[in-house]
Amino acid sequence: MKSEYINAFYKATIDVFHLMLDVEIKRGDLSLVEGMISSKDANVVLGVTGDLKGSILFGLPKEMALKMIKIMCSMEMDEIDSFVSSALGEMANIIGGNALTILNSNNYVCDIVPPQIFIGEYKSYSMANKKALLLPILTSIGNFDIHIFLEEEN
Questions:
Q1: Among 8, 22, 116, 133, which one is least packed by beta carbons within 10 Å?
Q2: What Å distances lie between residue 98 and 9, 12, 150, CA to CA?
Q3: Contacts with 77 (C-beta within 8 Å, 6 or more apart), sequence order
């Protein structure tokens, strides 16, 4: 997987977290994940089509998701309900759109598919025996994972 894919999503995440949450982020150690990916409490999957194809999985713990909503919307929430899910989906959509804009400047023409949101740790995701890159994101309000599975369309 090319570093420009990873850097595009990392840069977009930095920008969105700074703008929407006023939260600085750091990158944890990158690693490869094969096969099944364990889920978090809140999971958002974005499909990518075009010159690159694949998916991006954002996995967040419940506490972090609720802190994000408190910062963004000034609302105290106890559970990940439809409002919280929608807000997380929109944030992932903005990160994805910004990342694809960065990739477009590197001559990749791509689109994102509307996000799918899965709540609950009981799920795991299959990458169909392919490898995904795990990009851990560290913040002052919690840590979350971005799994990047992108391939160039032949």
A1: 22
A2: 8, 5, 16
A3: 66, 69, 70, 83, 84
